[in-house]
Write a structure and sequence with these properties.
Blueprint lengths: L2 H14 L8 H8 L2 E4 L2 E4 L3 E2 L4 H20 L10 H7 L5 H30 L7 H4 L10 H8 L3 H6 L16 E3 L14 H12 L7 H8 L8 H11 L3 H4 L4 E3 L5 H14 L4 E6 L14 E10 L5 E6 L15 E6 H10 L4 E3 L1
Antiparallel strand pairs: 1-2, 2-3, 4-7, 5-10, 6-7, 7-8, 8-9
Length: about 350
C-alpha cells in the first residue's frame, strides 16, 4: 500500500473512532461544525458559506474520505492539500475553550465577508443592487452614491467599477467595455517540496501584497503544514493574519462550491480580482484533463487565482507553484503563469474532494 493510501486509511479510522474524547464521529463533527445564519446566508465553521443542509455537511467528511481513497488508488501524486477528514483530525487536540475561540473567529470573518458574498450574488444574477447596500457593508469600501457604486449598479465591467474608486490598488481602465484583469506579475515561485503547494502559494501571495517576505519554510511553520499537506482553513487564516489582501474588501473566507455554479465561480473571480484587485486561493485537483500543461496526474493542490477575462471567452488566470520536472521523470515545465478556460478550472475545483476555495 502506498504511503498516501496508508495516510488516508489512518485518517479514516481516526475519524470513524471519534475525536477528542467523543464517542463517535457524529458527536465530534457536531462539536466542530457549527452552523449559523449570517445576514441571511448560511455559514458553517470549518466549511464556510454553504447552501447544504447541516446533516449533509457533517456527512461529507465520510463521503469525501471514500472519494479520496478512490482517487489515491488511481495513483495521482499528492501535491499538498488535506481532505476534510484530515483537517478535522488536526483539531483533535483542541480544548473546548480553544475550539470556541476558533469558531467565534470564523463567525466574525463571515460577518465581515457577507457583503462581498451578496455582491457576487447580485453580479452573477444580474439583479439590481438595492438602495443602501454599500452603506450597510462598509467592508466593501464603496461609498453609497459614489461613481463606483453607480458603475456597479449600471452593470459595467468590474475593471471600470474598480477604476471609479480611489484605492491605490485600483488601476484605472480607460475602456469600460473590457472586462478583464490580471494582477501579481513577477511573483511566480516553485514549491520546494512535493507537498508545499500551500506554503509556495502563500509565498507568492506575500510577494504580491508588497509586505513582509517570508520563505516557504516559514510559511510551512505558520500554516502548520505537515508531510500530508496544508488545510484550506490554514490557507484562509494565513491570508487574513499575515498578508494585507484582506484590507481591500473584507476578510477571506472558505466557500463551499458543491452547491454553486460555474457562473457564480466566475463572478466571484470578477469581483475579487477585477473589482477589489486581490487574489483568490484556488483549490483544485491537479489532473491533465483540466490542465493541459501537465504530463502526469496529481492530487489536491493550491494555486494563486490572479486574473480573469470575459472579452475572449471566459478564462481564469492562475499561478501554479508545481513544476513537474522537479518530481517526475519526463515532467513538464508546469510551474508559473497560465490561463485556464472556465469550464476546466471549474471542473478541477469540483474534482477535488473539498470542492471549495478561499475568497
Amino acid at each position: 500500500m502506498s504511503s498516501i493510501r496508508m495516510r488516508a486509511l489512518m485518517v479514516s479510522v481516526l475519524v470513524a473512532g471519534g475525536l477528542a474524547g467523543t464517542s463517535s464521529a457524529t458527536a465530534a463533527e457536531a462539536d466542530v461544525v457549527q452552523c449559523a445564519t449570517v445576514d441571511g446566508l448560511k455559514f458553517c465553521t470549518e466549511v464556510g458559506f454553504t447552501k447544504e443542509s447541516t446533516t449533509a455537511i457533517r456527512a461529507r467528511v465520510h463521503r469525501t474520505m471514500a472519494s479520496a481513497n478512490t482517487a489515491f488508488a488511481a495513483g495521482p501524486l499528492d501535491t499538498g492539500d488535506l481532505t476534510p477528514a484530515e483537517q478535522l483530525a488536526q483539531l483533535a487536540g483542541l480544548t473546548p475553550e480553544q475550539l470556541k475561540a476558533r469558531q467565534d473567529a470564523q463567525l466574525a470573518e463571515a460577518r465581515d465577508a457577507v457583503g462581498r458574498m451578496k455582491l457576487v450574488d447580485y453580479v452573477d444574477s444580474g439583479k439590481p443592487i438595492p438602495a443602501g447596500f454599500f452603506a450597510k457593508y462598509p467592508q466593501l469600501h464603496v461609498k453609497e452614491g459614489s461613481a463606483q457604486a453607480r458603475a456597479l449598479r449600471a452593470g459595467t465591467s468590474m475593471r471600470f467599477a474598480a477604476a471609479s474608486g480611489n484605492s491605490t490598488r485600483l488601476a484605472v481602465s480607460s475602456d469600460p467595455s473590457k472586462d478583464y484583469e490580471y494582477i501579481m506579475p513577477n511573483v511566480a515561485r516553485d514549491q520546494k517540496t512535493s507537498y508545499w503547494c500551500g506554503p509556495a502559494t502563500m509565498e507568492m501571495m506575500d510577494l504580491g501584497d508588497g509586505g513582509s517576505l517570508r520563505t516557504q519554510a516559514k510559511w510551512a511553520e505558520l500554516l502548520g503544514t505537515t508531510t500530508d499537506g496544508t488545510g484550506i482553513g490554514a490557507m484562509k487564516d494565513g491570508m487574513n493574519a499575515y498578508t494585507t489582501w484582506d484590507n481591500t474588501a473584507g476578510k477571506y473566507v472558505t466557500v463551499d462550491l458543491s452547491d454553486r455554479t460555474a457562473s457564480w465561480f466566475f463572478s466571484a473571480h470578477r469581483t475579487r480580482v477585477g473589482f477589489t484587485k486581490s487574489p483568490v486561493v484556488e483549490h483544485v485537483q491537479l489532473l491533465m484533463k483540466y490542465f493541459s500543461y501537465l504530463n502526469y496526474n496529481h492530487g489536491g493542490h493550491y494555486q494563486v487565482g490572479r486574473g480573469y477575462s470575459s472579452t475572449t471567452g471566459n478564462v481564469i488566470g492562475i499561478i501554479d507553484p508545481y513544476d513537474e520536472r522537479d518530481y517526475r521523470s519526463g515532467g513538464a515545465a508546469s510551474g508559473g503563469y497560465h490561463v485556464i478556460p472556465l469550464d476546466k478550472m471549474w471542473g478541477a475545483t469540483l474534482a477535488n474532494v473539498n470542492q471549495n476555495f478561499s475568497y
